[in-house]
Amino acid sequence: MSYTIQEIKELRKRNSLTQNQLAKRAGVSQSLIAKIESGRIDPTYSKVQKIFEALSSLENKNEVNITEVMNKKIIPSLLKEDVHSVIKKMQKHGISQMPVLDGDKPVGLVTDTNLLKKIAEVDDPSKLSSIHIKDVMEDCPPIVTKNASLKVVQSLLLHYPVVLVTEAGELIGLITKADILGKVYK
Predict the structure, then answer these.
(1) Measured between alpha carbons, how far is 72 from 81 in angstroms, rounded to an integer?
(2) Residue 179: is its pLDDT beyond 70?
(3) The pLDDT of residue 61
(4) CA neighbours closer than 13 Å in the CB half-sphere of residue 182
(5) Are 62 and 184 in contact (CB under 8 A)?
(6) Does the structure show a pLDDT above 60 at 43?
(7) Which of 17-21, 51-55, 136-140, 181-185 is least confident?
(8) Whole-model pTM?
(9) Which of 41, 97, 146, 166 is the most buried (most CB within 10 A)?
(10) Rounded to the nearest 10 degrees, what angle do helices 19-26 and 30-38 cross at?
(11) Contact (CB, 8 A) for 12 and 30
(12) 3-class DSSP state for residue 76?
């Protein structure tokens, strides 16, 4: 993240640091911090870079880890399942979307919208048992590792309804907009 010299005081205060504490973290003097914040000095690039690196490391430490936000209880649909059983599963668990797995590999996403469209196409609801979820699902949502930043996930959620989280190729969680809003901005 890039900062301007004028933001140093605001960033320091946002991180609850005194001038002395920031100076120690950055390896500069407290008087330099005071002069920069008051606008009485035009610091060298190397000094400003040290200060910004110290502030940036604090910003990253304060960021919520996505494993704290993600929903670890994954209720998936299997590629071979029929539409009727997936609808029942979604109703039972009170969810509106499910990752679709082929074995343990995510291959798609089924949402209540996909299912509603299919129901509207079918004249006899009993036929839903003969339609496989692979014929209703949409493309697989984005997959990130558990080390991805929350900002990356937030950006993805602007375009996708869910983001899947993996560790060593194994699906370990998922994150929706509601998860972000409910756990990060409570």
Answers:
(1) 22
(2) yes
(3) 63
(4) 9
(5) no
(6) yes
(7) 181-185
(8) 0.66
(9) 97
(10) 120
(11) no
(12) coil
